[in-house]
Amino acid sequence: MMCPPRSVILLALAAFQLTAHAANLQAGAFAQDITPRQLPSPINGSTKGNFAKTVNDPMYARSLAVSDGRTEIILCVVDACMIPREIVEAAKALAARATGVPTSHFLISATHSHSCATLASVFQSDPDPAYVAEVPARIARSLIQAHQNLEPAELAWSKDQDATQVFNRRWLVKADASYENPFESSRDRAWMNPGFNNSKVSQPSGPVDPEVSILAARAQADGRPIAVFANYSLHYVGGLPAISADYFGAFAQEITRRLHATDARYARKPAFVGIMSNGTSGNINNVNYAAGGPKRGPGEQIAAVAKSVGDAALRAWDKLQWKSTARLASTERDLSLTVRKASAVELARAREIIATTPRDQDGQFSNRKAIYAREALLLESFPEQVPVKLQAHRIGGLTIAAIPCEVFVEIGLELKSRKVLDDHFTISLANGYNGYLPTTAQHELGGYETWRARSSYLEVAAATKITQNLQEMLASLAK
Fold first, then answer.
1. Cβ-count burial of 271 within 10 angstroms (0-12 exposed, 13-18 middle, 19+ buried)?
2. Residue 37, C-beta contacts closer than 8 angstroms, at least 6 positions apart
3. In 10 A of CB 467, how many CB atoms?
4. Is the dihedral of CA 169, 170, 171, 176 positive or negative?
5. Does residue 47 register a pLDDT over 90?
6. How far is CA 210 from the centre of its chain?
7. Which stretches within 259-367 are classed as H helix?
8. CA 140 from centroid of its chain's CA atoms
9. CB-based contacts of 349: which residues, under 8 Å, 6+ apart?
10. What is the crossing angle of helices 300-318 and 246-258, to 10°?
11. Distance between CA atoms of 288 and 277, rounded to whole angstroms?
12. Residues near 300 by Cβ (< 8 Å), separated by ≥ 6?
């Protein structure tokens, strides 16, 4: 009897080993409270620094870990307006030492809730140094415990739509109309949040993305839900005068309740974690300026959005096709991009504005020209180029891109249209913060999201370069 050739034996052994590893699919999740212990707490979300004196609902770092026996990826969404790269990398370093997972396999993003404690200095809001010092360890705790909670699991991914909660907030200015921006120019042709019944604008300047995507994990042993990691391209909702995780936190509660994930039979198991990540929502909000909307009390709109998006997530859940094997892979690269800075003439004018504009009693500026003049002077200390960390992850037939910016919806839609596997979504405000990311075409229209500040400073071609790099990275995961 003839033995098969050595090459055939090796190929068969490799296939067996690959299958054996793939069969070891595991998942674990954990939600770590990161609410500031000291109040009042600075909060981002306005051109003036504000403070929260009370807590409406806690802030969390919510993590989902997945492993195929060889590769592990941990996705973490933090209740924060934005997270500086320094905090992200400190948390990753702590978690990598504790778990052995490479830092490139951690994805840490912010929700962009405007009612969370400040972590990044933007406009006139600066963080509490004591809070900044303790946050990396608390985020790392979420990553580490999710890893420690790994157990044999099945994964699935799907999507549905909710077009009722997303509206493009940038409107086109009519040809015979104009408004003045903070740089003493009236050339802008896009107007963010122009208000209801504004006769100077005509229609939204771009599309929306109504998709609600979910990545779900359930335990092999008893079928209990471990986590739902969702993605929706909605900036935030707002409306609460206290620390709050906004609709992102409300969604987590909504999906937990509706999946009956707190049943008594699961009491001795790790708790289910619902997670909502921010998609490409840089120019998308929850206000329909074409029609208006009902007047809501504090928190009512947050609850309404969480229920509506939860409905879509449950429809996606009903379409899930569970898999006990899935290929995992990650890739990461730093892209160096130029910082937009003021010219010598513009800097001179900025200094003049600062010198002649009175401050409010709280020491801050209310005058918009002075606010942006201050930003021009602060940007002058930035390096000429900055690193922008990009990531691409594969979980079975799903790919996930990560960009450290407030990404315009057109970019997310383009990446979805060129998906290399079955499905794709993009997470904004991930692995750092590099301001808004408008497309080149939207830069030409001007408007708030393009105005030079620490909230918008990357070169005009940044979106094109980032998209091209991500397409290469995503394609490499499909091989």
1. middle
2. 131
3. 23
4. positive
5. yes
6. 16
7. 300-318, 344-356
8. 18
9. 373
10. 50
11. 22
12. 239
- Partners of residue 275 on adjacent β-strands: 229
3-state secondary structure of 173: strand
Sorting pLDDT into bands at 50, 70 and 90, what band is 267? confident
Contact criterion met (CB below 8 Å) for 74 and 398: no
Amino acid at 291: A
State the Cα angle at 10 between 7 and 11, rounded to 5°.
85
Q: What is the DSSP string of 212-278?
A: EEEEEEEETTT--EEEEEEEE--------SSB--HHHHHHHHHHHHHTTTT-GGGTTSPPPEEEEEE
> Does residue 434 surpass a pLDDT of 50?
yes
Cα separation, 221 vs 25, whole angstroms: 12
The length of the chain is 479
Name the burial class of residue 356, with classes exposed (0-12), middle (13-18) and buried (19+) by CB atoms within 10 angstroms of its CB: exposed
pLDDT in tens, 76-120: 999 999 999 999 999 999 999 999 999 999 999 999 999 999 999
In angstroms, the CA 164 to CA 269 distance is 36
Say whether 170 sits in a helix, a strand or coil. strand
Tell me what the pLDDT averaged over the chain comes to: 94
- What is the C-alpha separation between 60 and 72, in angstroms, rounded? 22
- The first and second tokens of residue 58, run together, are 């806690």
Gap between the Cα atoms of 451 and 256, Å rounded: 40
Question: Is the pLDDT confidence value at 13 over 70?
Answer: no
Q: What is the β-pairing status of strands 273-278 and 225-232? A: parallel
d(CA 102, CA 429): 20
Nearest residue to 193 via CA among 214, 179, 183? 179
Residue 127, preceding peptide bond in cis (omega within 30° of 0): no
pTM reported for the whole predicted model: 0.94
Count helices and strands in the chain by DSSP H and E runs: 10, 21
C-beta atoms surrounding 38 within 10 Å? 9
Q: How far is CA 321 from the centre of its chain?
A: 26
Q: Using alpha carbons only, give the angle 440, 445, 447 rounded to the nearest 5 degrees.
A: 110
* Burial class (CB within 10 angstroms; exposed 0-12, middle 13-18, buried 19+) of 226: buried
Q: Is the model more confident about 72 or about 10?
A: 72
Distance CA 103, CA 434 (A): 19
Q: Which residues, listed in sequence order, are joined to residue 167 by a DSSP beta bridge?
A: 285
Whether residue 127 contacts residue 86, with contact meaning beta carbons closer than 8 Å, is answered with: no
The residue among 428 and 264 whose pLDDT is bigger is: 428
For the record, the structure tokens of 323 come out as: 């898999």
Query: Per-residue confidence at 293, pLDDT binned at 50, 70, 90?
Result: low
Taking the CB of residue 438, how many other CB atoms lie within 10 A of it?
30
Q: Which of 297, 284, 254, 241 is nearest to 406 (CA)?
A: 284
Q: What is the DSSP letter of 54?
A: S
